[in-house]
Amino acid sequence: MIKIKRFDRKKEPNSVTMEYPITEGLNLLALFYKLKSTLDPSLSFTGVCRSGVCGSCSVMVNGKPTLACSYTPKSGDLIEPLDYHPVKRDLIVDKTKALHTLNQAQTWIHKTNNIPRDTQNLHRIERQSNCILCSSCFASCPVMAVNSDFLGPFALTRALRYTTDSLELQPLDTLTAIQQNGVWDCTLCGECTAVCPQGIDPKMDIMNMRSKSVQNGFDDPTLANMSFGFDFTQGF
Ligand code: SF4
Ligand code: SF4
């Protein structure tokens, strides 16, 4: 049996955890479909491609964001909706705010001369381009618990992708957009990297974006509050 946290805002209580049987050989998303068609038509979830490409079926499995179509359920598993996303119903969440971080971070090409990318540049942005926007990294990030305005891992990964793209002639626009609630607010815990189904490393990308920021004249705001063991106001 697995446990699924159900949510219905029209019911009281609106959240309840229910148990369902596992079927040998079915991944979690396939199991959702089977449970819906045979046992509980009201079970609500999201899943489109069923092959780890669309990124729509992410759920929390025992507290860890996971693509349901890529996971084999085990007895005792607790399935919940993604953290830090408003729940619409059962396992369906609203990703509007998470996806809006791409706008806030200005992750697009602002100005280009349309000279084709060379192979080396294509290779440098390949991994970040493979993001499927599953929001697993967003749901794993502990900064979200204390700062809901944090841009989050996938927006910052995509910011690296666009500021590295040789087509972009104005990378400063994106760099400027990620200074506040962005690169400097990450704790470098690595949770996002650990859960990414695409093998992307948002933590490393954020560290790279910090380097790019400094190289382009931005400061780490946390340095202003450090004493370095010396009171500079007292002079030398
Ligand atoms: S490394 Fe940074 S962005 Fe990634 S989960 Fe940790 S705090 Fe969030
Ligand atoms: S970086 Fe990875 S975990 Fe984050 S949204 Fe993209 S594919 Fe999903």
Textual characterization of the structure:
A hairpin with a 2-residue loop joins β3 (58-61) and β4. The chain contains 8 helices and 7 strands. A 5-stranded mixed sheet has the order 2-1-5-3-4. The mean pLDDT is 95. It is of the alpha+beta class. It has 2 domains: 2-93, Ubiquitin-like (UB roll); 96-221, Alpha-helical ferredoxin (Fumarate Reductase Iron-sulfur Protein, Chain B, domain 2). It binds iron/sulfur cluster (SF4) (2 copies). One iron/sulfur cluster (SF4) binds at residues 140-143, 153, 186-192, 202-203, 206. One iron/sulfur cluster (SF4) binds next to α4 and α5.
Q: In whole angstroms, how far apart are the ends?
A: 69 Å
Main sheet overview: 5 strands, mixed
Alpha-beta classification: alpha+beta
CATH superfamily descriptor of the largest domain: Alpha-helical ferredoxin
Q: Regarding CATH, which class of the largest domain? A: Mainly Alpha
Counting H and I runs of at least 4 residues, what is the number of helices?
8
Mean pLDDT: 95
How are the strands of the largest sheet arranged?
A: 2-1-5-3-4
Reported by name, the CATH topology of the largest domain is: Fumarate Reductase Iron-sulfur Protein, Chain B, domain 2
The rounded Rg comes to: 21 Å
Helical residues, percent: 25-40%
Please tell me what the overall shape is.
globular
Overall number of domains: 2
